[in-house]
Amino acid sequence: MAMLTDEMLLESYQMATLLDLEREFIALLLAEIHRRNLISDPTVLH
Questions:
Q1: The whole model's pTM is what?
Q2: What is the domain count for the chain?
Q3: Is 1 part of a structural domain of the chain?
């Protein structure tokens, strides 16, 4: 995940949720988003 830019990480999360990929994968992306403190408004992520 360290190789992903912040923008790529957020886009990956959005696409993963849109495609309804496995929950474990989405959870990994979301954990990294939180670790990087990328979202201050939790309603942005669904």
A1: 0.82
A2: 1
A3: no
